[in-house]
Amino acid sequence: MLHHTEFKIVVVVLLCVCVNPRLVGAEDVFVPPLRPARETLPLKPIHRYLISTDTPTPAGQPNPYADRLNHFLGMALQNKLNLTELGQGKQANEVPEFMQVALWGLLSADSKFREREEWIALLQTGIDKALEDFREADDEKGRPAGIIGPEMTLPLYSTAMVELDGRTELIERIGVDRVRQYRDMIVHSIRWTVDDARWQKHRQTAVGWFNLLTHVIMPVIHGWVLTEEPKFLAMATDVINQEVDLQLPNGMIPYVPYGPFEMMYYHAVDVRTLYLYWWYTGSEVAAGGLKKAVPYYPLNIEPPYHWNDGPTIWWKLAWRTFWPAQIAMTAVAAGDGENAEIARQFARDNVSIDHYDALLNAQAFQELACRNIVSKPVRDRYVVQDPDLRDGLRLRYAPWSCTFSTGSSTVTRASCMVTHWEEGKASTYDAMILARPVIWFSDPKQTEPDYSTMPPSEVLGVTWAGDRVGLAATNYSPMLTSRTWDIPKITGAWNCAELWLMTDRAMVGLIDSEAMAPQAMRELAHEFRFFGPGSTGVADGDRQWRYGRLGFHVWATDMEQVHVESAPLSLLNAKNTPAWQVCLSDVQRSSRPMLMADERDKDCVVPPLRIVTTPYRRFSLVSVEPQGDAVAVTQVQRIGVNPLAFEAAIGGRTYLVYFNQTHRPVKVEPGADVKLIHATAAGHPEYQWDQKTLAMPAHSAAVMMRQ
After folding, report:
1. Which residues pair with 384 in a beta bridge?
2. 626 - beta bridge partners?
3. pTM
4. Using CA atoms, how far apart are residues 359 and 267, in angstroms rounded to an integer?
5. What's phi and psi for 301, nearest 5 deg?
6. Which residues contact 685 (CB under 8 A, 6 or more apart)?
7. In this structure, are residues 10 and 195 in contact, taking their beta carbons and an 8 Å threshold?
8. Which pLDDT tens digit goes with each residue over 508-541?
9. Greatest CA separation for the chain
10. Which residues, 6 or more positions from 358, have their beta carbon under 8 angstroms from its beta carbon?
C-alpha cells in the first residue's frame, strides 16, 4: 500500500503525464478517485440564500453590483433592457439571467424596486419560457427533453431556483405548480449533467485541464443546496480539494496542472467556486484556499486596478483589467485589507463591473461592507521573486512596474507598464506587452506565428531580486505555437537567450537567437509590442520611439531591418491590430497588416523561404522606461557574447550584467573598479569572486556595479 505522501507524488506525476486527453484514448487516461472530505462538513447548508432581505450595504460603502442590478431593473421597467449589456437586444422575459435579477429586485434590502408586481409577472413568464424551451429534446447536443445546458448556462437557471426555494409566500404568488416543475427541471438537469458517466468524463478532462471542472461545479453546489444529497457535496468537495492541491505559493490556481502561467479570468472562476462552496458549507479548506490567494491580486493588479497581463497564456493575451467581485470574495473570506482596497477602488471608479454573476457579486460586496474589513495600502516599492511565475520577477515602483516569467506556454517572458492619472483617476496605462524572438517558416499570413511560444519546464532560467533591482536570465528553444498542447512539445532548432535587468527607473534587455542546425525559414524577428488605450507610437530620435508615456530605445542590434507597424493585440485575431510594435528583422518585407490582408496588394513583399546554415546568430539590445522629467537610461552597450553581457547606465548607476547561457563554466574579468552585487545559478551557491575574476558555472547570471 502506498504511503499518503507517495500516493500524492504518483497523482502529481500522472497529472503531468496525462496532460492532454486529445492525444490518448479515454480508457488510457488516469482518473484519480474522489478526494474524501478533509474536515467535518455540515449535512445542510449553513446559509440558505445569497440575497439578504433585511441587511442593506451600509451607507457610504460601495456596492457596484447592487448599482448594476438596480440599473437593469430600472431599464426593464421602461422596456429598455434590450439596450443593456445584459439584454443584448432582448427583453427581460427573453433573458434567462433576468430571473435572478428579478428575485434580487423583489427581495434584496439593496433593491430600489422591492415588491414591484412586475417582477412576479416576469418570473412567471421566465419560468414558463424555460419549461417550454427545454421540453423538447436537443438532438444536436444529445440532451434529452427537459434538460438545461450546457454546464456554463445551467447556473443562470439554478441560481434563481436556489434563491426561490423555500420562500413559501413568494412561491404561492408565482404559482406552486409552476415553481415545482421548474425545480424538478433544475434538479433533473444537474443530475444528468454530472451522472456517473459524464462526471467521469469531466474528471478525465480535468486531469489535463483542471479549470474546465470548476466551470461545471457551480450547479453541483446548487444541487446540494436544493436536495442536500451527499453525492453532490462529495463532487463539490472533490473539486475544492483539487483546487487547493494545485494552488501555488502566492495563490495562483493554474489553468492546467502542468502550468504555471497567469490567467486572471480563470483564476476568478476558481475563486468564485471556492467562495460559493465556503458560503454554503463554512469549509475551512475553502477558506484556507482563499486566504492563500491573498497575494495574488495585489501582485497582479497595478494600483489601482490595471492588470499586468504579460505572462498570460498566448491565446488569451488580453491586456485589459477584469472584475473586482472575486477580489472582494478573497477579502471577505480572508479578512484582508489589501484585497478590500483594490476591490473598493474598482467600485469607486466603476471599472469593469460585469453583469455575469451579478447577484453573487453584489452579495460579496455587501459582505465586504457588513464585515467592516478595513482597507490598507496595496504593496508597492518592491522587487520580488514569485514562485507562481516559476520563480519569475515582479518589480513595482508605482506607477512603473515590470514582470518576468520563466513559465510555459506564454507569449513573452518580459513585460512592463506605466499607469497614468487624469482628473484624479488612474484612467489608463501604456505597456510593453511582449518582447520575444519569432521564427517564421510558413507564409506569414497565418494567425499564429510558427516558433514563438515559450516551452515548458525544461526552460533553464535564473532570477534574483535585490534592492530596487532585479536580474532575470533564461535560454530555451521556442515551441511551435500551433501545437502548444501537443505531447511531446515541438520546438525549433534554435537557442534563444534573454537577459533582463529590471530597476525602479527602467528595464534593459538583451535577446540573442542562434540557429542550432541548418533549416528552411522566412524570417527571424525580435518583436517588441506595445499597447495602451488611446496611445500610439511615434519616432523620438535615432532608433528611439515613444509609446504614450513609455520610451523605447534600440541601443544595438545586428538585425538588418527595422519594421515599425501595427500589430494584433491577441494572436487569435491577427487582423485586429490595436497594438503597435517595433520589429527587428533579418529580412526586408511588407508590414504585418499588409501580409495578413485577405487579398495582398501587388506590391506586397513576402519574405521568401530560404535555407539558413550555421553558424547563424542575431541579437537585440533595448531599453524601456517611463517618461519623466529626465531620461533614466543614458548609455547601454553589449560587452560580451559568451557569456552574454551588457553594461547599462541607469539613473546615475552603471550596471554590468552577465549570463552564461552555455553548458560550460566560464570566467569573466570585468575590471578592478567593479563591485559584485549578486551572482546566482540554479543548484549552485554564490560564485567564487576574487575582485578580478568571476567563475561562472553553466546557466548562471551575475550583476555588478561600477564603483
Report:
1. 394
2. 550
3. 0.92
4. 19
5. -105, 120
6. none
7. no
8. 999 999 999 999 999 999 999 999 987 889 999 8
9. 89
10. 65, 68, 69, 72, 97, 100, 101, 104
